[in-house]
Amino acid sequence: MLLLLEGIRAFIEQYVDRFNYLGPFVVLLLCGVGLPIPEEATLITCGVLLHRGEVEFLPITIVCSCAILLGDTVPYVLGRVYGMRALQVRWVRRVLHPERFARIEARFEKYGDWATFFLRFLPGARIAGYFVVGTMRMGYARFMLIDALGVLISVPTSIWAAKKAKEKLEELGGADNGIWHLALMIAAVVAIGLVAKLVRRKSPPPAAPDPTREPTAGPDSH
């Protein structure tokens, strides 16, 4: 696990360091379509760049936010256009596990817009969740508004917190950038795992969805 996280850290840091604005945009966009890298890892790197003075807070926040929203659109459109039939495609099933789909669908039916909003703060469920939102036929404008509200909180907060953490670390005596970055990624992975475990405990085991059924009509289906 440590070797995997170190590889992810090195990849993101090298790519983003070379292309300060384009790098985060591309990586975060690919995260939305299934790249197995936590968005938070890229946002942490952007906070480091902000600390170094290589990017400005408002532009990098806008770039990251736009990339995330575009990436979130992909699973939403997939669910909206193809519905459950998309789960019959092998590569889709690898990302959008039927069991996870069923669990998120039950949450969406119970909590509606709040479930969509809180998906932004559940990295392990985002792609499957936005796919479910699409199959439920939520209107795109409504989906974007709810998702954007989450992004408005998560992106600037993550970047600014990483910047402040780096500043504080240097005040306390400094540390190797790679070790510091890796430590934050490990902390993020542990936090994500704990949240996901808590959510699973509170969710009853769902039945696998039927790939042949028609999408459910949501509140904005017309």
Describe what this molecule looks like in 3D.
The protein has helices at residues 2-18, 22-31, 39-52, 57-82, 90-95, 98-111, 113-118, 126-135, 140-171, 177-202. The chain has one domain (2-202). It is built from 10 helices and no strands. It is 73% helix and 0% strand. The longest helix has 32 residues, at 140-171. With 222 residues, it is mostly helical.
Number of strands: 0
Described by the principal axes of the CA atoms, the overall outline is: elongated
Sheet with the most strands, sense and barrel status: none
* Total of DSSP H or I helical runs spanning 4+ residues: 10
Approximate strand percentage: under 5%
Question: Helix/strand/pairing class, anyone?
Answer: mainly alpha
Mean pLDDT across the residues is: 75
The tally of structural domains comes to 1
Give the fraction of residues assigned to helices.
over 70%
> Uncertain segments of ≥5 residues (pLDDT<50)?
1-6, 203-213, 215-219
Oligomer: single chain
The succession of helices and strands, N to C, reads: HHHHHHHHHH
As a whole number of angstroms, the C-alpha radius of gyration is 18 Å
Straight-line distance between termini: 46 Å
Please tag this protein with its features.
222 residues, mainly alpha, 10 helices, elongated
Brief digest:
This protein has 222 residues and is an all-alpha fold. The protein has 10 helices and no strands. Helix 4 (57-82) crosses helix 8 and helix 4 (57-82) packs antiparallel against helix 9.
Q: How would you summarize the topology of this molecule?
A:
Layout: H1 2-18, H2 22-31, H3 39-52, H4 57-82, H5 90-95, H6 98-111, H7 113-118, H8 126-135, H9 140-171, H10 177-202
